[in-house]
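User: Can you predict the 3D structure for this chain?
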Amino acid sequence: MSTSGIGPSLPRLPDLDAAVLRAASVPAGRPVVLPQQGGTGETPALEVEVNSFIPQDQVSTPWFVPGGGTFAGDGRSLGEDGTQRTQQTIQVYEDPSAPGGYRVEIDADTGETHRLGDDGEVIETGEASESDLQAEVVEVREDGTIVVQLTGQSPNPLVGVAPGITYDVTVEMRPNPDGTWTVTTSGDHDAFPGYEVLATVDGGDQQLVYGYDPNVSGASPISLAQGDGGLPGLIWGDSGVSVEGSLTVGADTLAPADLVERHTDADGNVDVVALGTDLAGNAETGNVDADFVESVFASLPEDQREGAANAFFDNLSTTPGGGVSPWHDDYATLALTPAGMDVILAVGAHAPERLAADEIVYAFAAQNRDAIHAGDPAASATASAFLDALADSPEAQQSLAGYLEPIYDDDRTGIASTPEGRALQDRIERALG
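Assistant: Here is the predicted structure, written as structure tokens:
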């Protein structure tokens, strides 16, 4: 993903059969939802994709599933080109003749399912029904916001008794005077597979509004049973995941000054809460880097920076934890990588007490500990910067140092294999006394 603009250029190349297009049931006075009129050459003002995908190359069902086996996955990460298990696409066209001034078209696709043999060869192919995917325009607000509800219950077509890929997602799309759109997602989905909501304005760059990767939470295909109220959900707890994402997207690259201007009124007053919220959404989708953040805060009066930073931290989304000691139910998704931590550190300089929050400290350590112990210089350098930034929070600093302290000889050898790692080891030892 690009870190210099509001969104990456991610053309979708789904390996899917021709779409089965359906007209949604639309109450009077709402935008008409029609089967997509392909081949018109018309570019939608806004296009939103809701996809489910299996990030692994292949997955196996539990042994007790009748007719189960090993199946090909999509083998990709969030926002990457490739296939998906299910896809629903909302296309919003400017149309003065339609209610609300917009025509909404929705299509649905399902990807091919491949059963694999012992040597990884494809031995059986099937495809789930597009009728398992439903969509409806449920509201049009006075400010022009179009609200669409999308649901899915798509089982593996090659398994006799299979729980479906289950989701219930609401997408709110608000047009803004500057030509951007604010896309907000809510709802819930199973803890497996992966899910993403992607938006494109006027045929520009595709931008990630919401993403969920089951590899982060450790979820497996057994989590699919939760969506149907199955027994595994009762034994291991609720595996459902709440959808929460919001991003203002545009066809052009966003500059720091544009982000500030977006939340500045005619009198020059900046809504720092809205600014921090918007910045958090862009950060979580990989659309800004530390330099971008520093430019934004440099443009704010000093007495407004803490408010914007607090709003940023208030709006960081969380990911279900792994249930390890110390017990954590949730941790901040942005802290899972060194790149994300660079952004957090840049914002945290203006709200140091929020930077020291346990979910941030634990999230970074849990996700990056193995890389640090393997000698990854980028992860080690970011960990050192994090420890330094926690100098005014001794307890948090000691917690991070304790999480990162190598225990085994191989870990010690790995962390000492680079200058960045050796510097980190020195900081860890000083923090622990």
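The CA atoms of residues 11 and 107 lie 18 Å apart. Residues 358-373 form the longest helix (16 residues).
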